[in-house]
Amino acid sequence: MSTATLHPSQESAATRVVQTLLRSRELAIVIVLALILVVATTRRSSFVFSADGWRDTLLAPSILLLLAVGQMVVVVTRNVDLSVGSTLGITAYATGKIFVSNPETSVLVVFAAGLALGAVVGALNGLLVTVFKVPALVITLGTMYVLRGALTHEVGSDRMTAGDYPAHFEKLGNQQVLTIPVLTIIALVVVALVGYYLHTARGGRELYAIGSDPDAADLYGLPSGRRVLGAFVLCGALAGLAGVFSAARYATAFSGTGSGIELQAVAAVVIGGVAIFGGSGTVWGAAIGAFLLVTINRALPILGISEFWQGAVVGALIIGSIVLDRVLSIRRTHKLVEARDHA
Amino acid sequence: MTTATGTEGRTAPTLELRSVAKSFGAVAALRSGTLEVAPGSIHALVGENGAGKSTLVKIVAGVHRRDSGVFRLLGEDVDFGSTADSKSAGVAVIYQEPTLFPDLSVAENIFMGRHPLGRGRRIDRTRMYDESNALFARLGVTIDPRRVANGLSIADQQLIEIAKAISLDAKLLVMDEPTAALSGNEVARLFAVARSLRDEGRALVFISHRFDEVFDLCDTVTVMRDGAYVSTHLVAETTEAEIVSRMVGREVAELFPKTPAAIGDVVLDIQGLGSTGEFHDISFQVRAGEIVGLAGLVGAGRSEIARAVFGVDGYDEGRVTLHGKAVPKKQPRAAIRAGMAFVPEDRRQQGLVIEGSVARNIASVIRGGLAKGGLLTAAAENKASAPWASRLQVKTSALDMRAATMSGGNQQKVVIAKWLATDPKLLIIDEPTRGIDVGTKAEVHRLLSDLAGQGLAILMISSELPEVLGMADRVLVVCEGRLTADIAREDATPENVMAAATRSAPTAPPTKEPVS
What we know:
The complex is a heterodimer of chains A (343) and B (516). Chain A has 343 residues and is mainly alpha-helical. Chain A is built from 15 helices and four strands. Chain A has one domain: Orthogonal Bundle (ABC transporter involved in vitamin B12 uptake, BtuC). In chain A, the strands form two sheets. Chain A has a two-stranded antiparallel ribbon. A two-stranded antiparallel sheet of chain A has the order 2-3. In chain A, a hairpin with a 2-residue loop joins strand 2 and strand 3. In chain A, helix 4 crosses helix 13, helix 10 packs across helix 12 and helix 13 packs parallel to helix 15. Helix content of chain B is 33%, strand content 24%. The radius of gyration of chain B is 25 Å and the shape is globular. The interface between A and B is large, with 36 and 36 residues.
């Protein structure tokens, strides 16, 4: 997140880090998340302080976490991928298919297959967007329906159930290392890797540049097409991985698996402070946004809010965070312009 | 056509273009472009809009590929397929409005795509900031490399582009109308930087409509007209009049032909207009048949005053009356009904529906009256707009041509035609000839003069001093949001207008006498 600091060169590095942190959008959502956890736990201590509560708090967001990270990488380039829910459904079902044909299949193979299948879908999206220069919103809306249709055709009213997935795979869905669920660990590693790439690699910075001003990116001679394609492939691959996660966690897959979760992923990204028109935001923000969304949904019943209102609460959160971003951005621009005029 | 070769052939020219042509479909944007730029020189490229300068620049920048002709850089034949090619060959193009990444830091804007890397191919931010600071130090400016580019002035943005060019060790810098949006101080700073780059042996191409700048900064000048090369001159051996005549292919006798008109009753009366942070205590009148020039530096508050008068923005105090009737604040529709017309500074964004047809644009303000039963036909638009288009000599093949494809001068005529169709009493026009070539400029001036002769009251904002002095019956000078002078046509000189425009006297009352 950028700061409004005007002459940071004269400040020490430590001061700068603290200031950046205090002004960051990420901190704001962490505080909201912490508040919700505290309030929900005061109402019912088992919300966090019980073996199941602790596990769910960490495990429940893991799938959305993967989707939000992938979505963030696409959104930062001023694109969006609405097909991730369908991709998730396909890989969750395909995972079951693989195990039905050979229950002895290694988990690693399944993970690789999920990643690869998702990457193919992502590459398809990316190619359509970069070659035909059609807005990603339209393209991925199309692929979302096409893939869902294909899945429904293939699956029909059939469904993969617990019996179709081997025990060692299902166990993975709930396995914990030092009380931390394995799926969550994997998701957090993904967050860290992608975050590191976006912050420290040229390619990562170029994704921000492309989203910040696509025309300028062309004038700079950045390989925009390749980078955007890469972002879609990564997003698709992570959606594929999320499909495998979904199969492991719920041990079920049917034609409607993952339907609607793409919008939650976009919501998590927006709540996490990633600009919907690209160019700014962090993976950490998107990840915390995912945590916040899932935790809110879990906490609302405890807070005595009917589940019917959950959607409305999420919607209010999205609008609130966008308005907040807008206000902050106007204030920041105002400050910068003012400082310029008085220079 | 005369060709005065200015550069000796000791070293290979940095840039050499010979008979370069480029067509888009059936339209030949560049028929025969020739330009030879020596290292260590600042070469002006001048020509009317549509002369092919932009196309030439875009070929050098790698945006377009030429159809034919010779293109050499540092003595070697080149053929750029992309901007990346041109960049890596040592060409840097600085556009009038630089395209930076607003969300990213200044340093990243300089080093995007080639950040300094440390261990493990990680971006070395400390080095990036240090190198940015070193670049700015070389340019003699201080810009914080860590701040975001968003909110930087155009001048600072250009300096970032230049810093980028230096860090790329560009041998050729092309500056496309860099001074159009700069204040006097900023222009001076840019020129100092340009001269130091020249002294380092780099070649610079400078495109400008302002001849004083060309003669101040450049050593050589190449003239283009109608997509073709005309001539090259040493600046020391030519005159402004010669360059202008080569550009337009004819002698322009009078650039600013305001003819005296009978001054009538007060049309616009402004009393004590003020808006916090923008302007204060603005009072003046504009009479029928009178052109009042609003002069001042960019950012002095002239456009803000005009926008408040027309009702685009609100104001905190004072009142606006037109023909004795109060005009309500912040209601452009009421202002239009009362008889005001407003030609904004930014033609493409605010003056035109740029993707719309000529007819639609001209008819856009009067369309309520043209519609039958709520429906508006293209035929009705064409019929209503045709007389205006011909009266203003809008050069267009058809009224359904898209405004975006027209030259700046013709676009401006369309905007003026649009407002004349409403039969206004007062025309407010902000920078009437910005970005318009010399030939059309004179036409716009003649048009304004004619309109004043017909009794229209005109309030003209202009940053071009000769334009203000030539056109205005009265010059009002704005400085830091206050009127600092009200000078009659016969008393107005460049010196007293500039003196009033640069005087920082926030408490001084508006004077009625010329400021010496």
